[in-house]
Structures are given as structure tokens and as C-alpha cells.
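anyone seen this seq b4? input:
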Amino acid sequence: MTGPSAGGPQGRAPGAPPETALPPRFPLLLASLLLTSAMSMLDQSIVATAGPRLTAELGALDLYSWTFTAYMLTFSVAMPIYGKLGDLFGRRTVYLSAIVIFLIGSIACGAATSMGWLIVFRALQGLGGGGLQVSAFSVLGDLMPPRQRAKYQGFFAGVMVLANLAGPLVGGVLTDQLGWRWIFYVNIPLGLLALAGIRLLLPAGSRASARPRVDYPGTALLTLLIAALVLATDFAGRRGWGDPVVLGLGVAAVLLAVAWVVRERSAPEPIVPLGLFANRTFTICVTVAFAVSFAFFGCVNFVPLFLQTVNGVSASQTGLLFLPAMIGMAIATVVAGQVIAKTGHYKWFPVASTALAAAAAALLSLDPAHTGSATVAALLAVMGVGVGLSSQVTTLVAQSTSPREHMGVTTSTVGLSRNLGTAFGATVFGSILNARLATEAAKQLPADTAQRVTDGTWDPAKAADFPPETVAAVAQTYGDALSTVFLSAVPILLVGLVLALMMKDTKLEARGPGGPGGPGGPGGPGGPGGPGVKTEAPA
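predicted toks r here
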């Protein structure tokens, strides 16, 4: 693959740095990267429609939710670890290890004989899944300069959105036709194909130093910290924030955070170098990624409840009303990548992202009980476009402002921030909804109906069994409660907007080396330093 768009020498200005020479058969390598990213995202949602068959065979319905929690917990834990290991030991070795772990976990999940073992194997699968996601974006950072990278990151975002949309559908088809175990076994041929593609097509790159030193204490502390945070939000969603287990996990998280910071300040090779946060743009990218995920996914989780209880929309129609948001997100991400690739300017995408999302959330909060489904779908589409404008831009910009030897750590830190924002948003907004729902139900509804609403046994599909005035009162109750949820997202997004406005409007490089594991990068083939030599790069 040659020419300026592929990093070739054509059209280079006199004295300009050399462009990155992409590896041979790059389109096939890109397909392998996209495939691994799709697999890791697909397994976040593919289990949902298999639930009834799965629990019917394995039992333990009370443990079923842990099949999701276990995957997301280890997925989140794996991200910073794989990012750092890739920087230390070379991207290809770590990437291949993640694929193997993901495949072993998938095979074990398909062969599980009890819910307990399925949860254990889902945790193993998540360890691989987090590595797949981080490694794919880190490889892009290694292989190409920032502006060229922007163009391809949009493709990844589109694939991730499609994977999330297709997950429930694919899971349902496989469960009906072949049985629930095939929602895991389907990963075997896909994973083997990706394994071969990465092994044959991805350059070996190099290590960051001749003798990498792994920060084992820092890794252990960070793992425990992330576990405490994810479990605290999970338990808070089920038991409330005042539960002793939640409070205990919160205290543990604070102590672990302090211990981890102390360790990272003195570690020779910290798992997340705290010096990265001295760069204002990097810190803003991490914070904006958290804020947008917190607000968007915190709101979106409750839109189905809004549509079905307030507007009387069926479950299948609800899914269709989400399509504009998902499509808008994918298109916005691709367009943002293409524009940045051409102009090199990125600042106004996070600004537009947070402004659009804040406006959509504010409009959703205005009298939800009398807002039609079409209006909700349109506002969701606006919010989806907003999220798409910054979803991968934050990763791209963070990569471009950090030292090249920290490409993996930079990528994983932004991704982890985004994941934690999603988890916290769903739980915090869930608590807001429950509190407001209890207050409004007591004021507006008869005691027996209020009890149904607050304990979650009100079924919108059976609303015809109740008097019209009761149904209208329930809709108003939910509308008032959900108004508070949507409104609560606005200040979070406005904080993100202010931070985005504080970003420097730096023009991204159009040419030059990628990260340490790519051709022309420090320590990479043809790059300064050569294999095994640690090369410092400016932020």
C-alpha cells in the first residue's frame, strides 16, 4: 500500500519527517484488528437474549447478572495491564496472548456445567476481551501518525456500534437454532481467523527496553482498586448506596487509590505513569471521556423504561427507536475521523459533542410525560451524534499528546475512564430515579399502585387492566422521575464542555512515526533506537 494516504513517500515536502510505511497487506491486518474489536464488544451484549435458555439449563437465576458483571469487571481490569505490557514486551506478543485467553474463555463458557463455572469462565473471557480492545487501538497508534490514525479509528467506532446492535439479534438466532452454548463457540472460528491475521501481518515491533521491569505491586493495587469500584457500583445498583457492603467497598477503594498513587510515584516502570496527567490535554481527554460516557449511558439505560411506561411503546418498537442514536453515533465518529485526517484540527469535536449531548438531555427533561416517541428518538439521535463526535477523538488526542513509549498506557487509560463512566452513570442515575420515583409515587398514586411502581412490578404491557386515569397518573409519575434523571446529566456534560473549551487547538501531525511498536517508531523497525533500546520522546 503506497502513496501519501498509506504513509508512503510521495508528495513529502522537503525537510518534512518521513511518513509511516504501513506493513504489507495492511487492509487484511486492519480487518483482523476490526474483527478482534468486534468480538470483544459483541460478547458484552450477546448473552442477553440467551438468558432464559441459559438459566433453564444451568439454574441459579439469582447469579445470572454476574455473567455480565464478571465479564465487565475483568474487561476493565485488563485494559491498563495490557496497555502497559504491550509497551514493555511488544504489541504483537501481548495481542496474541489476549486472543488466546479470549478463545480459551469462550470455549470454557460454552462447556460450562453450572452457573458458577460460567461466571468464572466469563471472567476469564473478559481478561482477553479487555486486551483485544486496547491492543487494537494501540496498534493503530504504533503504525501511523495522528491524522492518518483518525481516519481509521472511525471504522472501529462503527464496528463497535454495529457489534452492540447485533449482539442481542445474533445471540437470539444462535440460541434458537443451535443452542445457547453457540453464543460462545461462534468466537472460535472468528478468533482463529483473527489470530492468524495478527500473527502473520502485524510487525513484531520491539520492547520499550532491553530488560522490562513489570510493576507487580502497582498492577495488584490497580486491579484491586478497579475491582472495588466496579463491584461497589454493581452492589449499589442492587442494594443502594447506604448498604454496608457498598460502604465497605467505597472505603477500600479510597485506601487502595492512596496506596496505588504512592506506589506509582516511586515505581521504576509504573503501570500508569502519573506524569501523563501533567499534560493538560491528556487529563482533559480522560475526564471528557468519563463525563460523556457517564451522562450518555446513564441516561440511555432508562430510555426503554421511559418509552414503555410513559409512551406505551412495545419492547420491539423500543429497539427500533434506538436505531437513530446508534446510527448517528457511528456516522458522527466516521465523519469526525475523516475531517481530522484532512485538517489536523480536533478541538471543536469534543466541544460540539458535549454541547449537543447537553442540549439533548435538557430537552428530554422537559415534561417527558407528554413527549412523543418520535421526539424522543430524534433527541436520542442528537445525543448519539454528540457522543460520536468525541468517542474516539479523546483517544486519538490523548495518544498524540503523550510520549510514544506510553502509547498502550495512554490508550488503556482513556478506555478505562470511559468504561468506569458507563458503570458509574448507570448506577448513580438509577439511584436518582429510584429516589424520585418513590417520592412521586407516594404523592400521585394510590397505595397499591405506588407499591407496584416502586418495587418494579408495574408491567406496562398490562396497563389496559387498570383505569385510564391510573395509567395516566403512572405515566406522569415516571415522567417526573425520569425528568430528574435526564436533567442530572446536563451539569456533567457542561463540565465536559468547559474542559473541552480549555483544550489547546494544536494541529495534529500529518506525517512522522507512530508509536514504539510500529515501523519508524522509536525502537521499531527502521526507527531510532532500534530493538531493545528505550527512546524518550517529548509529550
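The CA atoms of residues 445 and 470 lie 8 Å apart. Residues 1-19, 519-539 have pLDDT under 50 and may be disordered. kinda curious what u guys think
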